[in-house]
Amino acid sequence: VPPAFTTNPDTIALGNRNYIYDADATGSPEPTYRLTTNPAGMTVDSLSGIINWTPNAIGTYPVSVTATNAAGVDVQPFTITVSALAP
Question: Is 0.85 topped by the overall pTM?
Answer without folding.
Answer: yes
